[in-house]
Amino acid sequence: MKISTEHTKKARILLVDDHPLVRRALRQAIDREEDMVVCGEAEDRDEALALLTISLPNMAVVDLTLKSSDGLELVKDIRRKHPDVLTLVLSMHNESFQAVRSIRAGANGYISKQEAPHEVMEAVRKVLRGEIYWPPKAAAETVNRLASSGFIQNGEVAGRLSERELQVFELIGVGSTPAQIAAIMDVEVTTVDTYRSRIKGKLGLSGAKELRKEAIRWNIARNSR
C-alpha cells in the first residue's frame, strides 16, 4: 500500500493493480500530466478500500483481476460506499463482454492494457470529464448487439425527450444518482424523480434497471460517433 501526501488541486488518481510493473507504468504516465497525480497504490480489494478513505481520490483505475479478489466487486464497493469516486476498469481482455460487465458493475469506463499509453490517458481524462469511456471496437460491438435486441434507436430517444429529460437521461447513463443529478441541474430531487418517470413513460421502459441500461446504451452510441 502506497499513499501520496502531496497536497494539490490536481485530479487525484488511485491505482489498484496486482502487478507492480503495471502500477509503475501508470504512475509514470500520470506523473507526466500537469493536472493529475497518483494519490495511492493498492494491489487488492482490502487495501484499496482502506486507501479510499485515506487518500480521497477523485478516480480509481482498477484492474479486472486483482491479487486475491475480483476487480468488479471492488467497483461495486466503490459505487456503494464512495459514489463520488469515478472508476476506470483496466484489463488484459479486449472484449465488449467484459466492458459491459464493468459498466453494469458501476464503472465509468473500460480499457484494455493492450492499448497505447496515450489511449489510456485519454480514457482517464474522458472519465474525469464525467463521460463513459469504451474502446471504439467494444462500443461498436455493443451498440450492434443492443440494437439487434430491440432497444430504442438513438433518433427515437432524441425525438421523444425534451432537453431537460435528455440531460437527466444522459446523467443516468454515466451512473449519477438522483441526488447528484439534482445538484448538477440545480433542482430538487423530486423534480429529478418526475423527469425519470416521464422518460420511462416516453420510452416505454418498465423500471429503473431498464432505464439505466438504455441510458448507458445511448451514451455509448453517442460517444462512439
Observed structural traits:
225 residues; alpha/beta; Rossmann fold; 2 domains; six-stranded mixed beta sheet
Could you write a compact summary of the structure shown?
This protein has helices at residues 20-31, 45-55, 71-81, 96-105, 117-128, 136-148, 154-160, 163-173, 178-185, 189-203, 208-223, and strands at 2-3, 11-16, 36-42, 59-63, 86-91, 109-112.
Describe this structure in words.
There is one protein chain. By secondary structure, this protein is of the alpha/beta class. It has two domains: 2-134, Response regulator (Rossmann fold, 3-Layer(aba) Sandwich); 151-223, Orthogonal Bundle (Arc Repressor Mutant, subunit A). It has eleven helices and six strands. The chain has a six-stranded mixed β-sheet, sandwiched between helices. Helix 3 links the parallel strand 4 (59-63) and strand 5 (86-91). Helix 8 crosses helix 10 (189-203). The longest helix is centred in the last third of the chain and has 16 residues, at 208-223. It is globular, with a radius of gyration of 18 Å. The N and C termini lie far apart (40 Å).
